[in-house]
Amino acid sequence: MNASKFIVAAVAMSISVTALGAGGHEDGQAAKNGEPAKASEADRTITVEMHDNYYEPEVIDVKQGETVRFVVENKGSLVHEFNIGTPAMHEAHQEEMEMMVEHGVIQGGKLNHDMMEMDMGNGHSMKHDDPNSVLLEPGQSKEIVWTFSEKGNLEFACNVPGHYQAGMYGDMNFN
């Protein structure tokens, strides 16, 4: 296998594993801890600001069965992610994010949207469109609506290379 086919295959495998993030990634934690919902079902709205390597708020309290509409705003100067998952899911997702940097999809403070559309085979691309996650350029804002179906070890994090390690994550505390 030549090098370019190997890279494409490796990225496709990584993305196909990560694409399961909301439904069955790792040990099935996401599936039992929550699922996407509609904004009309939200019990409340929480605004989350992403700054360069930290979030405001740093901790989010949720209730089992609660549906939360997260309005996520990137107030930093770099591309950042808001991703709801278990620590193991974030660790696995960081490999995909590293590949996105290596292939020029994430370029510091901007995203190469053309590269995100690149066909990786088997219907996979480098799009970052999982229902438990948003990837935003500086000044952008998007929403995630999530129902927390069962108590679990959840956190929110930015998995852009180096950001999680610099402390850009927070806990989801169940009440």
From TrEMBL:
The lineage of its organism: Bacteria, Pseudomonadati, Pseudomonadota, Gammaproteobacteria, Oceanospirillales. Residues 1-21 form the signal peptide. PANTHER family: AURACYANIN-B, COPPER-RESISTANT CUPROPROTEIN COPI. Keywords: Copper, Metal-binding, Signal. This is Copper-binding protein. GO terms for molecular function: metal ion binding. It comes from Vreelandella rituensis. Residues 37-86 form the EfeO-type cupredoxin-like domain.
